[in-house]
Design goal:
Elements (H helix, E strand, L loop, with lengths): L5 H12 L5 E4 L15 E3 L7 H21 L4 E2 L3 E5 L5 H11 L5 E3 L1 H5 L12 E5 L3 E3 L1 H14 L3 E4 L2 E4 L2 E4 L2 E3 L4 E3 L5 H4 L7 E10 L12 E4 L4 E4 L7 E5 L17 H14 L8 E11 L6 E4 L6 E5 L9 H12 L27
Parallel strand pairs: 1-8, 4-14, 12-19
Antiparallel strand pairs: 2-7, 3-7, 4-6, 5-6, 9-10, 10-11, 13-16, 13-17, 14-15, 15-16, 18-19
Helix pairs in contact: 1-5, 1-8, 2-5, 2-8
The structure holds flavin-adenine dinucleotide.
Length: 366
């Protein structure tokens, strides 16, 4: 396994649990700040429009996250419930509601007036309805990534800190060749550099802004929220980090190693405008911290979970497309099944060209 982000750590843990002798190579540190899995929190929701695969994957993953919590004795999922702010009666949220009901996943259709009490201050004048997923929430991403690595180690995996490079169908780490039956490259935004011409991803700069707010805005007192058409999402204050707002418009392309992680004025202002509009009481709340991270975007926001052509036993897991974290445990199982030859690769997650499709994250435009 190369890469100890959520995809690599979950795959390493799954394979070690199935009895494989696993070496997990990580260049920096599991869940480090430049990795996509290194954030303080990620939204954990089941709703994905009419996409049944992702809906089921998120649901299955929640159960796996719960098992991990038991195993490592740490609360990783923040069970806040989640609200979708629907601007239209017949948009993404209506599709989501239908799919969740078909799958037997709890969901409530609220009028804007019903939803207003969920936050100390919520503007609903531009909303058609609010969809509530009571069992959704958020996940402490960096901590969950490290917990997966610990779980992999407890199952016998060995973690090596080093810079892996492709060497035919194998791997060298800082000049030393590692032999193995299979190699899975789960290197997030570093994948296009490792597989030029084969892995097609846009690596974009994304920023989250945290606002200082009273304890009435802590996670659990308020739900996690997503504005699909408004391209923004956030959480209540988790662990004192502040009330989070992340504009979800796709940013400029970046290099994950060299990008300066200071926030841009325009993003901070965008986040402030968004919360001033939606949560008016926070209009003047101070910015208490910011995070700059990157998406690894496929054209259709579906992941890449695939064998590498003409390279026996070599696989790629990536293309999280700004919504992959919650699916980590499912990705681990899919990759382990591919490595073991138990499942055929799904062309939807293949390496070929993709059609631009409905985004599985938010509409991604302001
Ligand atoms: C701002 C932001 C918000 C997001 N919000 C959400 C959300 O709300 N909900 C959600 O579910 N998902 C969300 N996501 C997406 C999610 O975080 C990613 O899909 C997921 O973390 C991707 O994990 P990964 O393992 O593919 O990549 P990464 O976490 O980037 O891990 C790749 C690892 O590979 C290592 N590596 C790379 N090259 C080498 C090498 N040559 N040798 C050794 N190691 C190497 C890196 O150091 C790194 O640790 C968000 C992402 C961002 C950036």
């Amino acid at each position: 396994m190369v890469g100890a982000g959520v995809f690599g750590a979950a795959t390493a843990s799954e394979l070690a649990g199935r009895g494989w002798d696993v070496v997990l190579v990580e260049r920096y540190h599991p869940g480090h700040v430049r990795a996509s899995s290194g954030g303080l929190s990620r939204v954990l929701r089941f709703g994905h429009g009419d996409d049944v695969w992702h809906t089921r994957s998120a649901r299955r993953s929640l159960a796996a996250w719960g098992e991990l919590e038991q195993e490592v004795g740490e609360e990783l999922v923040v069970r806040t419930g989640m609200m979708w702010f629907a601007h239209r009666e017949d948009g993404w949220e209506a599709l989501t509601e239908r799919t969740l009901r078909d799958e037997g996943i709890p969901v409530e259709h609220l009028t804007p007036a019903d939803a207003a009490g969920a936050f100390p201050s919520l503007a609903t004048d531009d909303l058609a309805f609010v969809l509530h997923e009571p069992e959704a929430g958020a996940i402490r991403a960096d901590r969950a990534t490290r917990a997966l690595v610990r779980q992999a180690e407890q199952r016998g995996a060995r973690v090596v800190v080093g810079h892996a490079q492709r060497d035919g169908d194998g791997v060298t780490v800082d000049g030393e060749r590692l032999a193995g039956d299979a190699v899975v490259w789960a290197c997030g935004p570093w994948l296009p550099g490792l597989f030029p011409g084969l892995v097609d991803l846009r690596i974009t700069r994304q920023e989250a802004v945290y606002f200082g707010a009273s304890a009435d805005w802590r996670a659990g007192r308020v739900p996690t929220w997503v504005d699909y058409d408004g391209a923004a999402y956030g959480t209540g204050d988790i662990d004192g980090h502040g009330f989070k707002c992340a504009p979800d418009v796709e940013g400029e392309e970046l290099d994950p190693d060299t990008e300066d992680r200071r926030p841009s004025e325009s993003h901070v202002e965008h986040a402030r405008e968004h919360i001033a509009h939606r949560f008016p009481a926070l209009a003047d709340a101070p910015v208490v911290q910011t995070r700059v991270c990157q998406y690894s975007l496929t054209a259709d926001t579906r992941f890449i979970l695939a064998p590498v052509p003409d390279a026996a036993g070599v696989f790629v897991a990536g293309g999280g497309s700004g919504h992959g974290f919650k699916h980590g445990p499912t990705v681990g199982r899919v990759m382990a099944d591919l490595v073991e030859g138990r499942a055929e690769p799904d062309p939807a997650f293949g390496l070929g060209p993709r059609e631009v499709g409905t985004k599985l994250r938010t509409a991604g435009a302001r």
